[in-house]
Write a structure and sequence with these properties.
Helix content: under 10%
Distance between the termini: 19 Å
Number of helices: 2
Strand order of the largest sheet: 1-13-11-5-7-9-10-4-12
Number of domains: 1
Order of helices and strands: EEEEEEEEHEHEEEE
Structural class: mainly beta
CATH topology: Glucose Oxidase, domain 1
């Protein structure tokens, strides 16, 4: 029997002007400076967008004063074995450890909630992470946690308790992932941020490779 499972899963939403960004943040736009079709020797474009764009890695300085910027994060956090696990959670709720289908066993964990299903249609009632979940995963050696929503905290959250536990435990954050089509299981994660010096986040081209 032929194995039809793809070797690579792309978990990055396409970057288009229709991509939903946090209300008040900068959506992606392209300014075309010149084109081959218009007589130039090359085509050149300018990109304007938030760095919290689609699939992205947060820098600790996004949620902690004086904390490291994204260029100071070790690339090993975003490269290596990871678990994709699903959570049974209602919209607008926080994922607890007991909500996970199983206990992850790798240093990187991606949590699929299914509560932000369309990257081009903003919904405020996406799920987020319970601070105790972050503490529990950090205690077992998890260095990176990703989620399929725009934030690890709830849309209405002002005190950002999940972000604070990420900072306290020095765990890296990945947000905005597309995990709906990815079966639960163990993969190799590749989601490298750009070395944007001093910035509070970086877009990533996040993929999973079957092991």
């Amino acid at each position: 029997m032929t194995n039809t499972t793809p070797a690579i899963w792309d978990i990055t939403p396409p970057i288009t002007p229709a991509l939903a960004v946090w209300p008040g943040d900068t959506p992606p736009s392209r300014e075309v400076l010149c084109t081959i079709e218009g007589g130039a020797s090359v085509t050149l474009s300018t990109l304007r967008a938030t760095v919290h764009l689609g699939a992205h890695a947060d820098g600790p300085n996004h949620y902690g004063a004086g904390a490291p910027a994204i260029h100071e994060r070790a690339l090993e956090r975003y490269l290596g074995p990871c678990d994709v696990v699903r959570a049974t959670v209602q919209r607008g709720a926080r994922v607890r450890l007991d909500d996970l289908e199983r206990r992850p066993t790798t240093p990187r964990v991606l949590i699929a909630t299914g509560t932000f299903p369309d990257p081009e249609r903003w919904n405020e009632d996406f799920a987020a992470l319970d601070p105790a979940l972050i503490d529990a995963l950090a205690a077992q050696g998890v260095c990176t946690i990703g989620i399929d929503t725009p934030s690890v905290d709830l849309f209405s959250s002002k005190d950002l308790p999940a972000h604070k536990r990420f900072l306290a435990n020095d765990v890296a954050i990945l947000e905005g992932l597309r995990l709906d089509a990815v079966p639960s299981g163990r993969y190799e994660l590749i989601a490298l941020p750009l070395p944007l010096v001093g910035f509070d986040a970086s877009p990533v081209r996040a993929i999973l490779r079957s092991l």
